[in-house]
Amino acid sequence: xxxxxxxxxxxxxxxxxxxxxxxxxxxxxxxxxxxxxxxxxxxxxxxxxxxxxxxxxxxxxxxxxxxxxxxxxxxxxxxxxxxxxxxxxxxxxxxxxxxxxxxxxxxxxxxxxxxxxxxxxxxxxxxxxxxxxxxxxxxxxxxxxxxxxxxxxxxxxxxxxxxxxxxxxxxxxxxxxxxxxxxxxxxxxxxxxxxxxxxxxxxxxxxxxxxxxxxxxxxxxxxxxxxx
Length: 228
Fold this sequence. Notes:
32% of the residues lie in helices and 26% in strands. It is of the alpha/beta class and 228 residues long. It has a domain at 2-80 and 156-219: Rossmann fold (3-Layer(aba) Sandwich). The longest helix has 16 residues, at 170-185.
């Protein structure tokens, strides 16, 4: 699904966020990305959906060589990738239904299919009864559920979650994790950057630790390994 070979990313301010990354991630895996703040976790995941471009090295995502991918083709790459953010990034003037439907409208899906698919994913995340509400009328956990629904409405092969429980209380965090687990069981690859020690140590998955732009640990059923 994803392969990185000798990937280097340096920012104009002199910071090296990726310093020779090498990794293989198979279709259907659930991967935690951990490490201290500023270690390079966000850069690692942003390079996968071409939010950031590596200076050198090779990144292959679902058969596409991202170094050779023309800018006009990046939207096609992202159709197969759902992204969930810590701060939800919902459109405040759109309803729950409209926020999720937007991801299908931009690829010009038929209205009948949009309605069917949006209601399916809202049922999956438990928000079918709140389709007409605005994001401001929802709790933080509900907003994150909408964000997850939006990320999976295209049936992507890969979901990238950047600190998806970072702004949520513990109980809500476990609910969001249960939802991501369910999506993963359906065959979707999940890559999740997180500082949540308890989640990583309780729900066991592959753990990749990044420090100073390098992968220092890669364990199949690993632990968080840092104080939190």
